[in-house]
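Sat 14:20. Reprocessing the chain from the morning session after the first attempt stalled halfway. Input below, unchanged.
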Amino acid sequence: MFSKLLSITLLTATTLACGSCAPTTAPLTQQKTTDEERSTYSKEGINWQPCTQLSFAKWFPSYVATDSLECATIEVPLQQALETMDKPTVIKLALSRLPATGSDEDKLGTLINISGGPGQSGLDVSAIDSAAYAKLSKHFDIIGYAPRGVYPSTPTVKCSTTARMLFPEDVEQFTKGCWEHTPNDLLAQLGADYAVDDIEAIRKAIDAPKINLIGYSYGTKIAALYAEKFPTHLRAGVLDGIVNLNETDLQVAYNQAQEAQRTFERFVQSCRQQTECYFADTSTVQQAEAKLAKLYLYIENNELYDLDHQLISTMNMSWVLGDLLTWPEQWPLLNELLVSINNKDFELFKTLIDDSKNDVDYATFASISCADGAPTNDKKMDYIDEIKRIDAQLTWDDYREFNDEEILDACYYWPIAGSDVPHIPKMQLSAPPLLLVAQTNDPATPYINAQMMQKYLNATLLTRRSDGHTLALADLSYCVDNQVVNYLIDPNNFATQRDGSRKNNLYCAK
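Finished this time. Tokens:
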């Protein structure tokens, strides 16, 4: 079913709006926001405080070392609706900062981390124990933030009374709940174009003439749009796991489905080379999928509950499996999970569901996705046909046939159309040269995305021949990390050849 694509890619969703799902609380904002209004921020400046203070205790997962981090918030008012004089909602963006370790002479500015999802918090910018990260943090203050609507930024998108949810049982009721429990002017102003202006608000709040950006997955969309809109305010930009700005959401989903299927097949082939592989007794893709289907059917036909005492669904299965498929470093864990479920041991499965809930909240993921990509009501029938065409590309979790209602996700019921406009980005001469980072077998942002965006942006493309989705500065590749750091330190002279021209393509074997 189509919803499984969401669990695999954690990228822009594509669905159809529903006119019957009228908002029930704060009014929708229908007027376009001006650049000046969007970039407003608290005039008092940023009051950085140690993140170890009790007031920030819930900002980070327990494993994050916050000793060296500073925390703060800035205010970004929303645009007031035309049809009401009600005071618009004021967003408080949660920020974190890892101060540069070098001297004032060493400092080259601020690097802002833009997380993926959409809907992931990017607050964890704590130091990684690697030479590349140490070199980077010598020269830059590194700032992370939770995007608008994402906890602990306030207000937070809320779609049900359930605190944490990986995927709702009733998608239509869940979507209506978003408009009942969340300020409607916030939901109407969650898309990528508003996220770009939040980056600009952060730049103004830190009083920086230029900033540096590193965007991951969905965050590359925000970084590319920022480079296009504010070229003179950007010193350098790294995009890792590239979103193609010129694709419709259905094109995105189609390409992702194809690549995710290829990744599953590579995983099965790799697994068969190992001992105790769940697919050891299979020799074809069809046999492997049939064996996986048995696990899906067991989950569907038995009442199993996660650590929050919520019913485990087959969508939970797709979400967790899709996440583990994304990075080859996690393939052994994926096989361990399949073996354990087959043995009716569900403790690992429950732990991984819990980890996924900590990583991305479905309410914010769905709401931001729909704010970008929910189409108009008149596309409903075409949309369903397209979903079926997309679904045919991805077969590893087709454990049974699904009806039309089962393939619909939250955006189908979203009451307003998305604001995203696919286009070929046009870079100004004043924009800095950008660095794109991509892996050849990326299931979430296919490699062709990077190749196309390289042409549009006239950027340097750093390619790693590998499976996986995003890796820059994660200590997964010495080659990639050092190239990224060297670029950020000197973007104008990076990859420059003897004749003064710039290399368009660089490669890392590992």
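The CA atoms of residues 1 and 402 lie 6 Å apart.
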